[in-house]
């Protein structure tokens, strides 16, 4: 481990910090591998329910390490993370900048919190590439098609306020407060039943854009698993007994 990704537990929330501040938290092979391990820890630990991803130093992430790319190496693990994300809910906390693959990390999360003056964009067309880490698919699900096209085709960034107005960002924080807001939001999410949360996340992602009949078909296998779970019974008992539930994820 190189320390290029740091983790810290806050109750049932895992804070994941991209830690290459001198390189604008650019993703090299080491950082990618450690990010994958951090997400695997989140998904594999029954005591953790939600993850928050943020960046050390002045920004979130500047994307792929272009120096490493120019040397002829690239990270397959980074591509796999951008494709698969996590099973459990993820919140991005963006300060400073989230550009190129950095914005695609944020888009891999379920909720994006950004500071007012953060800069967000996908400038790949300006360096002979295109945003191949999911932004082209995911941005039009969040913002109007023309806004997504403008961001992708010009490569020009927008600030946090404009991103919030468009719907690219879900919560707007004062500068320096994005991680605090994201952790508070994650803690609120983590109060809920883990099995219900992971199922809801999967249905939100996989069911987006489906016709109603296709969505009902997608949802059907999860009904018995979740509604017949120990947590479902615990939730009903806790409600009747006017106490906080104790979730097991089963």
Keyphrases for this structure?
three-stranded mixed sheet, 16% strand, globular, 9 strands, 250 residues, six-stranded mixed sheet, alpha/beta, 2-enoyl-CoA Hydratase, Chain A, domain 1
What does this entry show, briefly?
The protein has eleven helices and nine strands. With 250 residues, it is α/β, with parallel strands linked by helices.
Any overview of this molecule?
There is one protein chain. The protein is an alpha/beta fold. The protein has 11 helices and 9 strands. It has helices spanning 29-44, 66-70, 76-84, 101-108, 135-142, 145-154, 160-166, 178-189, 194-207, 212-227, 230-241; strands spanning 5-10, 13-18, 50-55, 90-94, 97-99, 111-115, 119-121, 158-159, 171-173. α1 (29-44) links the parallel β2 (13-18) and β3 (50-55). α1 packs parallel to α3 and α9 runs antiparallel to α10. The radius of gyration is 19 Å and the shape is globular. The chain starts with a strand and ends in a 9-residue tail after the last helix.
């Amino acid at each position: 481990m190189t320390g290029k990704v740091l983790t810290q537990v806050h109750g049932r929330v895992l804070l994941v910090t991209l830690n290459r501040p001198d390189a604008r938290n650019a993703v090299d092979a080491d950082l990618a591998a450690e990010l994958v391990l951090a997400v695997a820890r989140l998904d594999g630990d029954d005591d953790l329910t939600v993850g928050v991803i943020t960046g050390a130093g002045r920004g979130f992430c500047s994307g792929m390490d272009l120096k490493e790319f120019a040397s002829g190496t690239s990270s397959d693990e980074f591509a796999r993370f951008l494709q698969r994300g996590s099973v459990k809910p993820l919140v991005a906390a963006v300060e400073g900048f989230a550009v190129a693959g950095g914005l695609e990390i944020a888009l891999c999360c379920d909720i994006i919190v950004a500071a007012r003056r953060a800069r967000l964009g996908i400038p790949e067309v300006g360096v002979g590439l295109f945003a191949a880490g999911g932004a082209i698919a995911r941005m039009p699900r969040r913002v109007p098609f023309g806004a997504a096209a403008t961001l992708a085709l010009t490569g020009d960034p927008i600030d946090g306020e404009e991103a919030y107005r468009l719907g690219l960002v879900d919560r707007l924080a004062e500068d320096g407060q994005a991680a605090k807001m994201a952790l508070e939001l994650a803690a609120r999410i983590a109060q809920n039943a883990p099995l219900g949360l992971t199922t809801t996340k999967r249905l939100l992602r996989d069911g987006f854009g489906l016709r109603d009949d296709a969505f009902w078909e997608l949802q059907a296998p999860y009904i018995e698993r979740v509604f017949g779970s120990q947590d479902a019974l615990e939730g009903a008992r806790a409600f009747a007994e006017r106490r906080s539930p104790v979730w097991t994820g089963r």
